[in-house]
Write a structure and sequence with these properties.
About 70% of the residues lie in helices and about 0% in strands. It is mainly α. Among the domains are: about 100 residues, Alpha Horseshoe (Serine Threonine Protein Phosphatase 5, Tetratricopeptide repeat); about 100 residues, Serine Threonine Protein Phosphatase 5, Tetratricopeptide repeat. A hairpin with a 5-residue loop joins strand 1 and strand 2. Helix 3 runs antiparallel to helix 4, helix 9 runs antiparallel to helix 10 and helix 15 runs antiparallel to helix 16. It starts with 19 loop residues before the first helix and ends with a helix.
């Protein structure tokens, strides 16, 4: 039997739910169910006229199905029938922002303002709309209305500082930003925004001091910080200082592709004797950068709903900035809104520092959307286009492995390994996944070598211990070492039902049914709805003489939709017991 735990990345497991058609279908069902009490009327031919409630519920379903555009459209029907409803206005505003339909969202925010129901984000949208028209006075008024804790605690000082700079000058901007400096742990962010204000104000010495403090206080220098500080140093004629930043970042992040376009631009500027333009040249761009920073904070804190709103708003203000596009796409990806993320990733300029990863993410999202052939074709083009990079080859191997094209996956992983050269310990997975591809291709000796190589790099890696240990048991080889491996894997990942299942099944294959049942019941408690795990428990119960319980588990295994080739063996066991179904 194949190892029950084959850790394909979660990106391969997720499936996009139904889109507008599914939402509309549910809406019709809901309308029929609510009938006249929900506001439904009967048309002359007996057709159903949708109710506001039905459209609201259909909108909610479309949102769960990750179709924000459909959700916004459906909710607009409900709003049209009750245009003053503050809850519908707020929900519609949020959906329109999340869908990137900012003109419509701003119109809804104005209606909210007329009812005095603005919240922090709708105030922000109205402020940005005014900034795009260079009306900083009106924008400042909206920022002054932002009160409270939580998100508002960051929004008001970080954004208000830029309107203060425009309206009342340098000192007023620093005073407005000061509350951010009182929040523990935010010194790097505070220093960066101080530096940017000084930079835009033309105070180069002060800007240099604050940029340096931001670098010194940051526990891990993000690439955007490196990019901004290097840009400043280059504008001051300090090429060596900029190059030192790139070098330090490359040492901290081996194999990074982010600095390559910057080094290329640096070489071009050196040859022509020119200097780069500032990345933040005015108050509007500084404000957009502040929104970017807040979004990154929210994203890292898993506050993805707010992160998506702010990422959309930042892009509304500065839609031509590649890093803003990348951040928005990453937030959409994290929310499994793959179609929307795909659209944004495709907008990232290929020659930007983020272009290479964006192209790989396009392929990843195509895979999510069950467009495997397109993903594989794109990845092959990327592999051919950049023989110096391994990322596309690894992703191609993953896609081919997910498509069960194992010999081709072996070839892709082998290309990646050749391109990587010396494999670092944190790159163990390329050997692990090639080992899986070898094993599934019926090539056990090279598979075994790859698993052992992965364990040399990461001796306690639970997935590798699980796969190699289970396969050894299944082959009747190195049994003592295999059980030890599986026990170590379970100890490391005791909450992983598939790894626990591997240890249980190993004991079963060794005839140690009393031990097997303990671990198999635990595996079922962790993953109750998996056909294979229930089938295994049925086999163990049968061996223990608990035949009624065994048949119950086999019935559950059938109910949980096993692979097609497992249906008949399970049905045979239900009829005739274990001897009929193998195992």
């Amino acid at each position: 039997m194949e190892p029950p735990a084959l850790p394909i990345p979660s990106t391969r497991r997720s499936r996009l739910l139904s889109r507008l058609a599914g939402a509309a279908t549910l809406g019709a069902v809901l309308l029929t169910g609510f009938g006249a009490s929900a506001g439904t009327t009967v048309a002359p031919a007996g057709s159903l006229t949708p109710s506001p409630l039905g459209h609201y519920l259909a909108s909610r379903h479309a949102e769960v199905a990750h179709d924000l555009g459909a959700a916004a459209d459906l909710l607009s029907v409900a709003l049209a029938s009750d245009p003053a409803n503050p809850q519908l206005l707020q929900a519609s505003f949020r959906l329109l922002v999340e869908a990137g339909r900012m003109t419509e969202a701003v119109a809804i925010a104005r209606r909210m303002q007329s009812q005095d129901t603005l919240d922090a984000v709708s105030r922000l949208a109205l402020a940005l709309d005014r900034i795009k028209s260079d009306d900083y006075k009106a924008a400042d008024g909206y920022f002054n209305g932002i009160q409270g804790q939580g998100l508002e605690r960051f929004l008001k000082p970080m954004l208000g500082a830029w309107t203060e700079l425009k309206l009342r000058g340098h000192d007023a901007a620093l005073a407005a930003l000061a509350p951010l400096g009182q929040i523990n742990g935010f010194e790097p962010l505070y220093e960066m925004e101080l530096a940017e204000i000084e930079d835009v104000s033309g105070q180069a010495p002060e800007a240099a001091q604050h940029y340096d403090r931001a670098l010194q206080t940051a526990s891990d220098q993000a690439f955007r910080m490196v990019e901004l500080v290097a840009n400043f140093r280059l504008r001051q004629g300090d090429r060596k200082g900029a190059e030192a930043l790139y070098t330090d970042f490359e040492k901290a992040h081996p194999r990074t592709f982010l600095t390559q376009p910057l080094r290329k631009a640096l070489a071009s500027q050196k040859a022509s004797g020119t200097k780069p333009q500032p990345l933040i040249a005015n108050e509007a761009q500084g404000l957009a950068e502040a929104l970017f920073n807040i979004t990154v904070l929210l994203q890292s804190d898993s506050s993805n709903d707010a992160a998506l709103l702010l990422a959309r708003l930042a892009l509304y203000l500065r839609g031509d900035e590649a890093i803003f596009q990348t951040l928005l796409a990453d937030v959409l990806d994290a929310q499994q809104r793959y179609q929307a993320a795909l659209v944004v990733y495709r907008q990232v300029p290929p020659d930007s520092p983020y272009g290479w990863q964006a192209q790989i993410k396009v392929a990843d999202d195509l895979q999510h959307l069950n467009r495997s052939d397109e993903a594989i074709a794109l990845l092959q083009k990327l592999v051919d286009a950049r023989p110096d990079r391994a990322e596309a080859a690894i992703e191609l191997g993953d896609s081919l492995r997910a498509a069960k094209r194992f010999p081709e996956a072996v070839k892709a992983y082998s290309q990646a390994i050749a391109r990587l050269g010396k494999i670092e310990p944190d790159e163990w997975s390329v050997y692990y996944f090639r080992g899986i591809a070898y094993e599934r291709s019926g090539q056990w000796p090279p598979a075994e070598r790859d698993f052992k190589k992965a364990l040399q790099l990461q001796p306690d890696q639970p997935y590798v211990l699980n796969y190699l240990g289970y396969t050894w048991v299944d082959r009747g080889e190195h049994l003592k070492e295999a059980i030890d491996m599986l026990q170590r894997a379970v100890q490391a990942k005791s909450d992983d039902g598939f790894i626990v299942d591997s240890l249980a099944w190993a004991y079963y294959r060794l005839g140690q049914y009393d031990k097997a049942v303990i671990y198999q019941e635990k595996a079922i408690s962790l993953e109750p709805g998996v056909s294979t795990l229930n089938d295994h428990l049925g086999n163990i119960y049968w061996k223990l003489g608990r035949h009624t319980e065994a048949r119950f588990q086999w019935q559950r295994a059938l109910a949980f939709k096993p692979d097609a080739d497992q249906v008949k063996p399970i049905e045979a066991k239900l009829q005739h017991g274990l001897s009929a179904g193998g195992g």
